[in-house]
Amino acid sequence: MSNTDLLPVLEPEAVPCCPPLDERPLTAEEAERTAVMFKALADPVRLRLFSSVASHEGGEACVCDISDVGVAQPTVSHHLKKLKEAGLLSSERRGTWVYYRVEPTVLAAMGAFLARAASA
């Protein structure tokens, strides 16, 4: 019998990439941070990889399950690295495989950024 208590896992607060488009003009820093995320998704291979991770059962995908995007494995790794650098994905190594997850707070912030502008 263990005398340790489990602590609850708290969801991180959403870190907005930027204010909604109809709120005010973006600052230079907000525009730069937002552009990095959208640039990462502007590549068709990266967009396919991002979509594969986002739609994968359980909310995460092993690199071995999403590598079939028409490019060589080193190129897949390069694109996944760019998505991570943009803050869109996180990863965890388990043995010899790496598992990727979409960063939900960033995705929610980007969605809010676009949704409010679309409804205006």
TrEMBL record:
<protein>
    <submittedName>
        <fullName>Helix-turn-helix transcriptional regulator</fullName>
    </submittedName>
</protein>
<feature type="domain" description="HTH arsR-type">
    <location>
        <begin position="26"/>
        <end position="120"/>
    </location>
</feature>
<dbReference type="InterPro" id="IPR036390">
    <property type="entry name" value="WH_DNA-bd_sf"/>
</dbReference>
<dbReference type="InterPro" id="IPR001845">
    <property type="entry name" value="HTH_ArsR_DNA-bd_dom"/>
</dbReference>
<keyword id="KW-0805">Transcription regulation</keyword>
<keyword id="KW-0804">Transcription</keyword>
<keyword id="KW-0238">DNA-binding</keyword>
<dbReference type="GO" id="GO:0003700">
    <property type="term" value="F:DNA-binding transcription factor activity"/>
</dbReference>
<dbReference type="GO" id="GO:0003677">
    <property type="term" value="F:DNA binding"/>
</dbReference>
<dbReference type="InterPro" id="IPR011991">
    <property type="entry name" value="ArsR-like_HTH"/>
</dbReference>
<dbReference type="InterPro" id="IPR051081">
    <property type="entry name" value="HTH_MetalResp_TranReg"/>
</dbReference>
<dbReference type="Pfam" id="PF01022">
    <property type="entry name" value="HTH_5"/>
</dbReference>
<dbReference type="InterPro" id="IPR036388">
    <property type="entry name" value="WH-like_DNA-bd_sf"/>
</dbReference>
